[in-house]
Amino acid sequence: MTLQQEAVRSTAIQRISTGRRIKDHLVRGLVYLAFALAVVPLVSVLWLVISNGMARFDLEFLTHSMRGIGARDAGGGAYHAIIGTLEQVLLASLISVPIGLFTAIYLVEYGSGGRLSRAISFFVDVMTGVPSVVAGLFVLAFWILVLGMPYSGWAGAMALSVLMMPTVVRSAEEMLRLVPNDLREASYALGVPKWRTIVKVVLPTAFTGIVTGVMLAIARVAGETAPLLLTVFFTDSINNNPFSGPQMGLPLYVFDQAGRPNDTAIDRAWTGALTLILIVMLLNLAARLIAWWRAPAKGR
Amino acid sequence: MAIETTTRGGGPATRRSASRRTYGEGLFRYVSTGAGITLLGIMAAIAVFLIAEAIPALQANKGSFFTDLIWDPNGSQVFGIGALAFGTVLSSMIAIFIATPIAVGVALFISHYAPRRLAGPLGYLIDLLAAVPSVVYGLWGLAFLVPVLREPSQWLNDTFGWFPLFAGEGAIGGKTMLAGGVVLAIMILPIIAAIAREIFLQVPKTNEEAALALGATRWEVIRMAVLPFGRPGVISAAMLGLGRAMGETIAVALIFPATFDITFRILTPHGNSIAANIANGFGEATPIGRGALIASGLVLFVITLLVNMAARMIINRRKEFSGADS
Q: What's the pLDDT score for residue A5?
């Protein structure tokens, strides 16, 4: 910058006027300020969750349910909610990963810009914007009210899978598009049919990227409360079977405890939030690490 | 496995293997196409089932769904979406007005100001904001933001009380529209920032270099080359954020005091939204009440669908802006 200015001065072209320079510095300051402003809530949230959550982050919290815990009692835990969340998220992945992956395969390998593939592509994008509460209402209307099924972990998993699918499709599609066409053509040249090329060449090449995308999708839905509220309902007891009876989910547990008036419940809510953030952040971090560890391989 | 041996064997087996090959090929194609169509089907099914379950409740409504400011489907069976829809739009607007400038600043910081080596990790830091679950933001809003906003709210009210948004007597601060709007702004900021960042990075280098060659300062480069190129992308990013803010449920369900009135006074303890009302009202809803909540969800679905489709159309007009990761 100074060199530039020197050069400018020496060629007798007018140097950058004070007004322009001040404006430039002002904008730089504003941009830095914007970034700082964005980081403040992150730090504040993490600090508050950790400092308030550590009080009850003990073995009892992780291994006990809320069964038989009175309104004002201390103690109790989120074991039932953790089990519920793990099962619901697993089931949601079992539904949405195959559908999402095959949709991505269709878009990349078979669709070839036709009308159907453009429609699917557009609505996948639109589907990412479906509010989570609407996904919950959908499963409530379809599964519980029309089909007359009871509230269950499985119903919650269906609602979560609606939210997961578009994320899985987009990330898988992106990864499949990164697979060089030369690999496909080499496989065709050996007489391998297209579907086996996809299974044996394209998918293994894109595998790590797809895993990263799926983990990010899981991290996204693991923290969703609204769909669970409408489909899983509440329970204070351990229910290991996601196909029968109300279950609990960790986000739902936090919401439930936060709504209770006692300090002991608020403490449990914070610890629940800490557990939830730990799970989500670890998934996120693991996904990024896989992506990062994978990245240098591209250059080889 | 079977196919490999038959093809290697050649001779008489070739025909059988060929038919099996096309069989596998066909199956795979059908499964992939079927998965794609399933996705379209789910979108259609969402609309169909919400409508089917909303109709009985709407027929039982003794008031007007679009004009009444009461929500009492369980008792008197009078309910109207007006106040809820208003709250949804107002709180999302507050969020957009706060989040968009900051998000554009963050995106510019990462694309044009931060040292190259730090840009990646710093961008990830912003993405982490999106990884915090909604319910945690709700807790944080109640415990931290609501008390913190009390004094600035009082100051705004004292100084700019003549301005309708900041008007109001008596109770200022607390569980207000402003608090909800700020929490929503924090939640949508990473989405807008991520898309804007992607677009700013796609500005043709030649445009920027041309501006630099004319002696432009960094701000002038941004004003003349980066912002004009990125404008449609930023607009659609803001719209995607708007859609997200309108559908956000649990955080605002914890913060809003669940009032049913239409007021622009964002500093007084008023506020509700369609999504928050669903979360708060579902527990004690009768069958009619559930239908009413589903009807309100249908309205939310339609509004967010329109906002999202408009945003996607703007993005798709310029293919290079995918915005896929949002």
A: 55
Contact predicate A251/B135, CB 8 Å: yes
Domain A60-69+76-299 in this protein, CATH class:
mainly alpha
Per the structure block, which two tokens stand in for B226? 């980066």
Residue B290 contacts A where some CB pair is shorter than 8 Å:
yes
Question: Is A205 within 8 Å of B258 (Cβ atoms)?
Answer: no
In this prediction, the residues of chain B whose per-residue pLDDT falls under 70 are 1-21, 318-326
CA atoms within 13 A on the CB side of B88: 26
Q: With a cut of 90, say whether residue A208 has pLDDT above it.
A: no
Q: Do the Cβ atoms of B196 and B237 come closer than 8 Å?
A: yes
Query: Higher model confidence: residue B173 or residue A194?
Result: A194
- Span A229-258, pLDDT tens digits: 999 988 888 888 889 888 999 999 999 998
> In the numeric block, which tokens belong to residue A262?
């006692």
Q: Which of A8, A28, A226 is the closest to B215 by Cβ? A: A8
A-proximal residues of B, 70-109, CB under 8 Å = 101-106, 108-109
Global pTM value = 0.88
Q: Do B316 and A122 touch (CB under 8 A)?
A: yes
Report the alpha-carbon distance of residue A27 to residue B217 in Å, rounded. Answer: 11
φ/ψ (deg, to 5) at A219: -60, -35
| Best residue of A195, A280, A284 to probe chain B, by most B CBs closer than 10 Å | A195
Contact A141 B101 (CB under 8 A): no
Question: DSSP 3-state assignment of A149?
Answer: coil
* Kind and range of the H or E run holding B78: strand B78-79
Q: What CATH class does B71-317 carry?
A: mainly alpha
The two three-digit tokens of residue A221, written as one number: 């839905």
